[in-house]
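Quick one: structure tokens for this chain, please?
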Amino acid sequence: MRFLFVHQNFPGQFLHILRHLAASGEHELIFITQENANFISGVRKATYRGPSELNPSTHRDAQEFDQAMSRAQSVGQVASNLKTLGFQPDIIIGHQGWGEMLNLGDIWPDAPNLGYYEFYYNLKGFDVNFDPEFQTVPDALSRVRAKNAVNMLALDNPGQGITPTHFQRSTYPGWARERISILPEGVNLDICRPAPDAMDQIFQHGPLTVQPGEKLVTYVARDLEPYRGFHIIMRALPSLLRARPDVRVALVGSDGVSYGARLKESTWREHMLREVGPSLDLDRVHFCGRMDYADYLRLLQRSDAHVYLTYPFVASWSLREALAVGCAIVASDTAPVQEFVRHGQTGLLTPFLDPTALSMRIQEMLEDTDRAASLRLGARAYATKHLRMEDHLLGYTRLIDDLVPG
């Protein structure tokens, strides 16, 4: 078969299905994307130039839409070139959030379209104004509403949609959900697995050294920011460190901002250190930045309590990987997390907005080692049952078979 994939940051959410298809050696795989260094053997990249900087003369609510239309046009031009060269995809698979997929039906009107729908923005009930500390002013609500312009155009185009969780599908309007199938994302359970002897060994990563017998509390996010509860865990640390002199804390993530607001004059790490730093034993709090994947997995395997927090927003891949590793998870009681972490079975839930409760939950996990061991087994068992990569790939291939005639 001939596959066309589209995502501005190759390979995006399509890493595993691409590897699976490429490994068979039976398919032609072309991926339209912006230039980056990522590489998968057997996949040809066709690059396009991304949009320029935001145009200040464009209405603020239309700036993202303006960039999406620029992407749609650029991807359409690359697609037209591919068609001129004789490429005719049997199916087009891509992310619907960036605008790149919008014009491809004009070029290949007979090619089935399978679009990844990640999130539909709502003014109530989800991430907007969830955290009272960071309220969206009424004047900015129109910008949130306008973020759905590409979603709406994509839903008006022919094609089938996929999304990985019930929570993410629930963000879309009722009339749109019948167009969107749930395709759970998988984890490589052979790589993301428990390491029972990790607790008996010295863990070292840069300046972080954890001796056997010390307790390691871990937190992972792409970026250290409020959407992922960074401000909450930082406020929980003073009481945790006072109560447990044997605890070290590893905070993994960069100083960027993936979601929400960026501070004008500092990073969120610097901001929170100004607030709670004087109350912390900073010799036991380690900011690890980004870690390579092997070290990141070793960290999860060594963790005595792993904290995962998020607004009612898209759950991170790291949560799935922590379950697969068999971490003792302390997580926020928000809807996307509750789909994975069941209190007392696969982890402990705690109110997102309550740093004191988070500190107590972590201490509870550290003190009751028998319960922690049971939760580790529960987390791994959940991953084995629900997050198998083989099931993810089988679901993908079934959808493709349904969409491609013959």
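The chain is about 35% helix and 15% strand.
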